Amino acid sequence: MSRLSRIRKSRRAWKDKAVYRATQLRRQRGKSARSRKKEDSRHRELEERISFLECENAALKSTSESCPPAVVGDDALDRRRTACVMMLIEGTVSFRAVPRIWGVLQRLGWVQIQIPHFTSVIHWTLRAGMTIFNEVGPTDEPWIAVIDCSIDIGTRKALVVLRVPLAALQKKQDAIGLHDCECVGLKIATRWNGPLVKDALADIFGKAGMPRAIIKDGGTDIKRGVELYQAAHDAEHVQVIEDVGHLAANALKAEFAWRAAFEKFLDIARKGASRIRQTDLAWLLPPKVRTKGRFQGITEVAEWAGKLLNLMGGPGRSKNDSEVGMLRKAFHGLSQLRGFLEQFCATCRVTERFLKLLKRNGLNQATGAQAKIILKQLPQDSQVRARLASWIDRHLKIQRELAIGQIPLLVSSDVIESLFGKFKTIVQRNPQAELNRLVYVIPLLCATHTSAEIARALRGCSHGQMLDQIRKTIPLTLRQQRYRVLDSASRRVPETGPRERIEAG
What we know:
Number of strands: 5
Largest sheet: 5 strands, mixed
Helix content: 55-70%
Distance between the termini: 14 Å
Shape: globular
Order of helices and strands: HHHHEEHEHEHEHHHHHHHHHHHH
Strand content: 5-15%
Low-confidence stretches: 63-74, 496-505
Number of domains: 3
Radius of gyration: 31 Å
């Protein structure tokens, strides 16, 4: 064997040995990192328990009778956790606000506790929410499913299903709120279509039981998914209720959206708003007109237009420096649309009375008759009147087919819109807002949860179980992907010194 061959063989052996050692070293580093992570988690839990015990000891030694207990719980160690979760869901405050509230109470001398970090508040809330959500099961009481998809947050949408007892409206005699509902379904995906909605409903209803009816909006994805589910699971007996709020918005859109006067009115309102925004007349700014779902809140715009016309007065001259004169100059051309606006405002007022009646009282023979009387105030050729009257006839038939007597039928999905709004209030401070592990807060925002229930829910899910469920059900967030890619990119740089250049013999 030549000297060159021996050198090459030696280099190959050295290279194989180096690669093997580097692989073993990386594996050992990974094991060490995982061990340190577990040890840190156990250390944090131990510190938490120690702080609880110290707080309880300080409370027992305290002689002040003016300090009420922060929270009532079965277990002394669960009191602070329970109070933090209750503060979040009942006060609708952010996670970071909870420690600040404890700080204020402590400075006032009302409590003496170890103030938790906001990340601990997040973990406690998720544990309680997971326990309550995992305990969802069938019920003997007939119920209605309210289904909707959240608007896009990041690249994901959430399909949420709420359970509302069929007799909830009759018992409450008012509009349904979040305290009257229960979250039975929660699915996250990057997109939703008919087959995906069908599979999700099969999973949810297989766990929560079959509803008597389903309330949905006019979305084609949910509509197709419900139809596919009914065909695949022989569920034609499950009635489908079209949300009355979305129907009314579509009726108003069909009535006015195509008119040139309506577009001119929006243009005048937009230009007038820019003219008075930085003036003494800023209090007369029009309500913000949504780009998507414009006719959902169009009644507020109509009411503003009617009141503004009354302020501007009728024909005749006015002083330029007067309030009337400034309004006429800012909203130039609005008076010319008085005929159209009077019809528009009258239609919106009637529609609002119609919705208020059915959302608060539901639909049965009595409320259906009252609703038709309200619709008679609209012209015979009105598309709004025709569509809403047709909707009443279809859903009165559904109410009879359910064989529930005069129990009013829930016909509005506003409660799930309120749920999405409340959830967004909590997560809106996220710099890269998207649907992540915090979706497990949603079950806590529904129904009424006592302190004892929250304490039991916290004991029902450990920190490790919470992390396992998150890994199984929640995809990587944008922030997690960002950290993972950047962290891996930083590790590509070798930590060894510069290579020595070896030239072959």
